[in-house]
Amino acid sequence: MAIREIRTVPDPVLRTKCEEITTIDARVKGLVEDLLETVDMEGRAGLAANQIGVNLRAFSWNIDDEIGYILNPRIVELSEDRFQEGDEGCLSVPTLWYPTKRAWYARVEGMDLDGKTLVVEGTDLMARCLQHEVDHLEGMLYLDRLERAVRRKAMRDLRESL
């Protein structure tokens, strides 16, 4: 289909909770194609539908040479005793990276284009991606997860970059 333009802050679509996909039709299939094509670029780890202006619960990923997608994802498991804290960035908040604490392991359940259950799980970068993209679908940015002092600096940096 097409490589789509990435929406950036302060676009309100990024702060809108996405709707469940109830019917898999041509529009949803086209969305998945666009998500897969748009994420398939150097430096892109994940892409939520609202980042390309579509208010539906879907995202794609591009981690360790694996590209995929999931519809209606929900986090069903996170490691509770093991965490990672590294710099995180976002295509919708270009050039700004901040230390963000995430679970080391994440498991997400959703469905594929055939309506079959799809389970995606991983550690490290994949776990970070899964958590980051599900947050997008809830209308959250990684900036919302930052510790208070880091968040203040991030918001100041963000205002200066706009």
UniProtKB/TrEMBL annotation:
UniProt KW Hydrolase keyword: yes
Report the domain of life of the source organism: Bacteria
What does the record give as the reaction this protein catalyses? N-terminal N-formyl-L-methionyl-[peptide] + H2O = N-terminal L-methionyl-[peptide] + formate
- Cofactor notes: Binds 1 Fe(2+) ion.
Q: Which UniProt keywords are given for this protein, alphabetically ordered?
A: Hydrolase, Iron, Metal-binding, Protein biosynthesis
Q: What does this protein do?
A: Removes the formyl group from the N-terminal Met of newly synthesized proteins. Requires at least a dipeptide for an efficient rate of reaction. N-terminal L-methionine is a prerequisite for activity but the enzyme has broad specificity at other positions.
What does the similarity note say?
Belongs to the polypeptide deformylase family.
Q: Which HAMAP family match?
A: Pep_deformylase
Name of this protein:
Peptide deformylase
